[in-house]
């Protein structure tokens, strides 16, 4: 894939993440409840987006699945981003 194609895909992913955050009812409700008690809110979410070219070879060993221990806060945050934790 060309560098420009990767840039286009990265921009699409950034837009999708931003849209998921701004359209999330739980996030908007939480922000609104903070505003109602007199605070201004700003949200900064940092994401590192990287690309690693995957070779299409049957001789490449498959990586084992990784299981992460997630707290209930982690799960709520990922769910608000519409990321399944199952």
In short:
The chain has helices at residues 3-22, 25-36, 72-80.
Description:
The chain has 86 residues and is mainly α. The protein has helices spanning 3-22, 25-36, 72-80. The mean pLDDT is 83.
Features:
86 residues; mainly alpha; 48% helix
First-last Cα distance? 31 Å
Portion of residues in beta strands equals under 5%
Structural class: mainly alpha
Spans where pLDDT lies below 50 across 5 or more residues: none
- What series of H and E elements makes up the topology? HHH
Number of strands: 0
Q: Largest sheet at a glance?
A: none
SS element count, helices: 3
Number of domains: 1
Helical residue percent?
40-55%
Rg, rounded, reads 18 Å
Mean pLDDT: 83
Rough outline = flat
């Amino acid at each position: 894939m060309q560098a420009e194609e990767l840039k286009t895909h990265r921009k699409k992913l950034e837009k999708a993440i931003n849209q998921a955050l701004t359209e999330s009812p739980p996030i908007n409700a939480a922000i609104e409840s903070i505003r109602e008690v007199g605070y201004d809110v700003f949200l900064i979410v940092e994401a590192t987006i990287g690309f690693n070219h995957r070779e299409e070879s049957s001789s490449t060993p498959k990586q084992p699945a990784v299981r992460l221990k997630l707290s209930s806060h982690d799960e709520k945050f990922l769910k608000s981003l519409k990321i399944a934790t199952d």
